[in-house]
Task: structure prediction
Amino acid sequence: MTREPGEPTVTSSRPADASGRGRRSRRLSSYGVLLVSLAALGGLYAAVAPSGNAANRLPGVGAQTVSYGRQLYEVSCASCHGLNAEGGSNAPSLIGVGAAAVDFQVGTGRMPAATHQAAEEPRKPPRFSQDQIHALAAYVASLAPGPAIPSDLNYQATDPALGGDLFRTNCAACHNAIGSGGDLTYGAYAPSLSQATPTQIYEAMLTGPEQMPPFSNSQLSSREKLSIINYLMTTRNEANPGGNGLGRIGPIPEGAVGWIAGIGLLVGVTVWIGARA
Amino acid sequence: MTDEQPPPVRRPGPLRRIGRRAEPAAPMPAPNRAAEAQTPDPLAHVTVYSRTDDDPIEAKRGERIVAALFLLSAIGSLGFCAIWFFTSVSGANLAHLRRVNFLMGAALGAALCGTGAAFIVWAKRLMPHVKYVQEREPMHSTPEDELAAEKVVLDGATSMGIARRPLVLRSAGLALGVLGLPAIVALRDMGPALKDTLRTTAWTAGDRMVDINTGRPIMLGDLEMGGYVTVMPEGSTDTNANALTPTLLIRLRPGENRPLPGRESWAAADHVAYSKICTHAGCPIGLYEEQTHHMLCPCHQSTFLATEGAKVIFGPAARSLPQLPIMLDAAGYFRAQSPFHEPCGPSFWERG
Amino acid sequence: MTSPAETATRKTLRVVDDRFGSANFLRRNLNKVFPDHWSFMLGEIALYSFVILLLTGTYLSLFFRASSQEVFYNGSYAPLRGLKMSEAYASTLHISFDVRAGLIIRQIHHWAALIFVSAIFVHLMRVYFTGAYRKPREINWLIGVGLLTLAILEGFAGYSLPDDLLSGTGIRIAYSVLESIPLVGTWLAFFVFGGAFPGQDFIPRLYIAHILLVPGLLLALITAHMMILWHQKHTDFAGPDKTEHNVIGSTIWPGFAWKTQGFLFLVFGVSALLGGFAQINPIWLYGPYNPAVVSAGSQPDWYIGFLEGSLRLMPNIEWNLFGHTIDLNVLFPGIILPGIMFTLLGLIPWLERWKTKDHAYHNVLDRPRNKANRTAAGVLAIVFYLVLLVGGGNDVLAKTFDWSLQGTTWALRVLIIVLPLLSFYVTKRICLGLQHSDADLLHHGIESGIIVRLPSGAFIEPTKPLPAHRRPLLESGPAGHAEPAIPYGHAAPNGHAQPAVGTGAQADPADGGALSAAGRAIKDFFTEPASGPESPEDPGQP
Result:
C-alpha cells in the first residue's frame, strides 16, 4: 500500500486495558474460543453428515473429496440412483459398486445417462473433469467396499499372446475378435474398444458395466487382465500390412469393395474396350 | 481249288520318305494383297462389312500412347523385382510390411495394367476398324446327314446284337451295375461309424470344472454375481478332441434362477451350467448379458434364457441348451453331478 | 519385298502345317467373327480371374501346409507367439509375414476369387436378361450354372483352408448342415470329416478338393463351355443388317485377340492393385480356430452370404417323428432352399420353353424390356437373393444403424416375402411402359419439340421419322415386324446373307475421345451408332 506524501503513518497503538490482564491474554482467550467453536462445529458436522465409515474412503482421500463428491452426486445422479444411492426404477443401486465402476461410467461419459430408456448407454464426451470424477468415485466408494480404481497398469510387461487367447475366449463373442464391438439383444450392444483407455478396460472387466459380466480377479487374475489390455493395445496400434484395413470389420466391406472397385472397375474397362474408337 | 484262299496281299504304294515332302514343295504363289482384302472367304463365310479409314494423326498419337504404356509396364515389372530384391519382411514390423505390400501391388498393377491397356489402345487406335460379317451355319444338319448318322449308330447297335442276345444284355447289366460298388465300398473308411460320438461329451460324474484357458479349477467365489466362465472337465481340456464338451458356468443372483421342474438340484449356490454349443448349428455361445440373462449365439442370433433352463426365446434354434447338473464338493470346487442328460450340439436324425 | 518377319511367320506356319494339316483349321478359326458389344466380354472377366487364381494359387501351394497337426507358433508375429494352432494356420501366417511376396500373392488370390464369382453372376445376369440361353444354347447354360456352383464351393473351400477363427466357424456350420440331412446326414458328416467335428482329416481333404478336384472340374467345364460357344457362335443384339443368320463384328485375329489379351492383363492388374491397396482376410487378427471360441459379427465371404441369411431368417422349426429328429431350421436354409434355387436356375431354358411354347432357334438377343415376364421374374429372383444376402449381415446392420437385432430379423422375414413380389410387379410395369414408348417411337417418330397450331385450332406436335439405323432394334420387339426366328425342323434358308459391302462407310461422328465414347456406349446400350451403310432394303428380308 503506497503512502501519499504528507500523510502521517499510522501506527498501532496500545490502548490501556482496564482489566489489568493485558492485551496478550485477551488475544489468547479469543483464539481459544475460536478453536473450541471450530472443534465443536467440526465434531457436530462429522457426527451428523453421512460420510460413512472412514475406513471405506480411498486411501489418501480426505473427507472434503467425499463430501464434494456427494454434492456432485446429489445434483447429477440422485434423480435416478436415489438420494442415498439405493437405486430406483431406472437405475441400479450403487452401493458396493466401488470407485472403479464410477470411474469407468463417468469417465467414458456414459453417465450421467442421456436418456432413461435406452437399451445401452453410449460413450460420450465426459461431463465431469477428472477431479470431479475422482470425487464422485470417492463418495460412492465410501458407501460400501467395492473395486478400487486400478493404478500402475504396467501392461507392457505381460504376454500379448496370452492376452489374445483370453480375449478370444472370454470377450470376442460380444466385442468381436478384434474388439470392434458387436450386437446384443433388443437394442443393446457391446461397444467398440477402439477408444477405451487401459484403465477403462481394466475397470470394465472388473465391474461388468451394464450387460457385461464382471470378471473378478480370482477368475481373471490382475496379470491376465493386463495381458488382455496389452493384446488390445498392440493390435489396436499395429499397422494393417495388407493395405487399407476397410474398418477391420471383415467380409462385408471386403465384398463391397470387391463389387464396387473390382467388378465395377472391370465392367468399366469392358465398356471402354467395346466402345468405338 | 479249295475254298481256302490266301488273303489278298496288299502291296505297299510308292515309298514315301517321312519327315520331308515326297517331292519338293511347289512354289507358293505370291500373296495377292489387293484380292485378299475383298475376296469372300468361302471356308469361313466371312466378308468385310465396313471399313473405317485410319486417321494418320490419331495413329501417331496412338503409337505414342501405346509405347508409353508398355514402358510403364516395363518399369512396373522391374520395380517389382527391385522391391523384392532389396527388401525383407517380418511380422515384427507391420508398418514396413504394409509399405512393401503397397509398393509391390503398385508395381505389379503398373506392370499388368500397362501391358493390358497398351494392347487395348493398340487394338482400338492402331488397327484398322473393319467389321466383318459371317454367316451362321444352321445348328442342325441336313435331314440326309441326320439320317446317315442315325444309320451308323443304329447299324452298329444292331451288329452288336443287343436285341437278339438277351443273355449278353442282362449279364452286361449285372456287371456294369455293380462295377461302381468297389469304389463306394472303399470310400467307407473315410469315416468311422457313428456309434455314440454325437451323444456324449467328456463330462462324467464328479469331474471338476476347470477354466478352458488356464486350466484352473473353479471354486465358489471365483465368479462374481453375474459373471460367467467357459469350463471343461479336468483332464479333458482339448477342445479339438472334445468339441461338444465346452460348458458355460454362470453365477446368477440369489432368487433369479427359476429351474425347470425336476432340475432344482442341478444348480449349486446360484450357479448354473449349460452346454456352450448352440443347438442350432453348433457355434459356441460366448455372449452372456448379465442383466437380461440372455445367452446370445453370434452366428444366427439364437437367444436362450439362462434363468429358465436356457430355453429359446428368439432365433432359429429350436431346442434349449442342455443343462449340466453341478454340485459343490467339500473343498468348494464345482463338479459335474453326472454327464449331460441329452446330446449336446445341433440336432441330427438319430437324436430321438 | 517380303520382310524377314513375314518369311519367318510363313515358315513357322508351314512347319506346323506339315505335322498337323492345320492350315484350314487356322484360317477358319482365326477368321471367326465375334460380335462387338461390351457386355459379351463379361464372361471373360470370370475366365481371366480363373487364370489368375490358378497362377497365384500354385504359388501359394508351394508354401501352404494343409495339416491339422497342432504346433506352437514361433514366428515373427508377436501377438500369436507361443499359442497352439494348426500347421495350416501357422503356414498361412508364415506366407503372410515372412515370405516376401507372400502377402500380396495371398491377397491377389483372395480378391481374384471374389471377382471370379461376381463376374460369373454379372455374366449370368446378362445371359438371362437377354435370353441367350434359348435353343441351341441350353446345355451351355446348364454348364454355366454348374460352373457357378463349383466356383462358390471352391471359394468356400479356399478361405476355409487357413483354419482361422472366422472360417472355422463356417466349417462348423457346414458340418451341422450336413448332419441335419435325414437318414444319411450323420453318416455323410462322419465320412466327409473323418469322424466328429473337427477331426484331423478335414483340412487335408479340403485341400485336395480345392487344388485338384474342383479346379479340374472347373477347367473341364470351362473348356466345354467355350468350345460350345465357339461352335455355336455368339449371339448378338438386333441392329442394322443383323439377322438370325449372320453375325457382324471383328474377327478373332487380330482385333479380338488383341483386345482380349489386353483384357487378361487388365483383370490381373486390377486384382494386383486391390491386393496392394486393400487388406483382405487378415487372419492374424482373427486368431486360430477353436471350437469353443467365436467372434461377434462373423460373416462368410459374400457369395455364401445368402446361405447365412437364410439360416438367420428361418423360424425355429424342428420335427420329432417316431424317435427321429428333422431339424428343418437347418435343413431347409442349408440344403433345401439352395437346392431349389439352383435347380430352378438350371431349368430356366426348359421352364421358359414350357411356358412360351417357343421351340425355335434364337441367335438374336432380346431387349429385356421386350420380355416383361422374364425380366420381372429375374428381378424377383435377384431381390430375393439380395434380401437373403442382407440377412446374412443382420447383426452388423443392427449395430451400424442402432436398430434392435430382433426387430431387424423380423423386418427381413417380412421383406423376403413382400419385396420380391413388389419388385416383380414394378419391373413388369416398367417393361411394359418402355415397350409402349418404343412402339410410339417406331410408329410416330421422334418428337420435334415444335408445336404447330392448325387452322382448326388444334395443337399438334410434328414428329421426325426414326432414323433407319435405329429401326431394327425397335422392330425386334413386339411393336415391330421382327424377323421370324428360325423355326425348328426346317433347314435354314440358303444363300449368304449379303448385306451391301460398304465402300468408305461413315466413320463415327466426331466424338470427344474415349470417355464420351464409353458414355455413349453405356447410353446406347442396345443401339449402334451409324457405322454401317444405309441398307437399301428393309432388314429381315433375306
Summary: The beta strands of chain C are 33-35, 70-72, 84-86, 246-251, 319-321, 324-326, 446-447, 452-453, 459-460, 463-464. Chain C touches chain A through 79 residues (CB under 8 Å).
